[in-house]
Amino acid sequence: MSRSSRTTLLSAAVAAALLATLAPTAAATATATATATATATAGAARAEAAARTRAGGDGIPHLTDSRGRVLTLRGWNVGDKAHSGDEALSSVTEKHFRDMRARGFNTARLLVFWDDLEPRAGQYSQSYLRKIERVLDWAAEHDVMVILDAHQDVFGPAFDHRGIPAWATRTDGLPFTPRPDDWFSEYFEPAVQRAFTHLYEDEDLRRAQARMWRVLADRFEDHPAVLGYDLINEPMGELREGEDLATAARRIEREQITPMYNRIADAIRSVDRDSWIFVEPTPIVGEGVPTGLGRIDDPKVVYAPHFYNSAMEVGGDYDPSARWIENYEAAVTLYPKEYKVPVIVGEWGPLNNSLPNMNRFYREAMASLGRYGSGWTGWEWCYGGGYCAVDGSGAFRTNKELTAEPYAEAVAGRVRSSAYDPATGVYRLEYDAAGPRGSRVTELALPSGDWKARARGALVLRDRDGGKVRVLAAPGARVTVTVTRTTTRP
Length: 490
Prior knowledge:
The protein contains 13 helices and 19 strands. By secondary structure, the protein is an alpha/beta fold.
């Protein structure tokens, strides 16, 4: 599937002319950059100390596009859990993607539901596929990449949630007690746990799940907005007698979820050879528990954990002394280091953003996510209260504005460092441009506000709307890009 940019780029003739101008100065530029680095001011040194290094360190690879450019994803989950059937996705509008892109976000994790796609076994809803396509068209129009997420909460409609269809839910008659004030605890109800076991183990349900994904991938593998597929949201399973939660989670991931992911990946690859496949551990990883997932035998796998703290999920404040972020980071980076896959955090963000320590949380969380990940999609882009990123007027809710910062969407070369200092409003990117056969164009995304961009060793080209910067470099040049905040729009 093509991953070419969906915005108008320079013509080949103009690009060639600019490269001819740049090429003779590449060596001089590298020297100038080294000199400038050696004479950096104390303020710049402080900014560098506070900087966040992009993914790729410690053996964790970058996410890349079809042109080999290093990608960074920044965005939000978009979905509609409240409507199904004829009203499915009715609360998702083009405004979601227009507003996200205007704030500098380039990615949406779009919730899709198996119960809407296949309401009866073997009967796929063409109406629902058309609704998904309409949403993808809006995303493409506004230059937003999309991860299609097969979402489930507490398995599905059999338990008054969304996800796996009722016809694919088998409980062996075990009990289920609804807990509306603590919905996540419903995952531990005997009927729900047994339903997961049947999904993983029953051959006919295995085939049905694989067919469902083959239908989705076959329909959308050529869509210009689609980056990849998140195979199942927050998978869980059945605890055995005497197991603690961490031990059970690792067993379920190793023995049931890993084989499931390999089955689904095979089904997708029968129709789509190019898109990325996103795989999640159980949500227990949020407590700093390393995953038990094994190898997914596919060349384009992304590890996609979620980043939630149980105390904050029930409305509590961030407690820096508990070292939750540090423990999470240590645990969550083990899998991508071992299996050499990129990391995208698929969900994160607390329920109550206005508590006293939340400003610190957002700053420390953004720093952590930038150390090891190729990006993230927060929960969620909606207009209102609770988890919503923005209020009814479209203004960021308290502390959510800290998620909007300059970043390099696509780097045509090898990233040496990438960092944003929120205290000074300065973003710096240093990279070695690709060789003669590589892409020439690096793209930076800017949030709302007034920003000034300059580069050593390359030309800076600014979009008319001010939301994106393109940097054109000669092959092999050492490039340093600096973006500085001048004023901030309300």
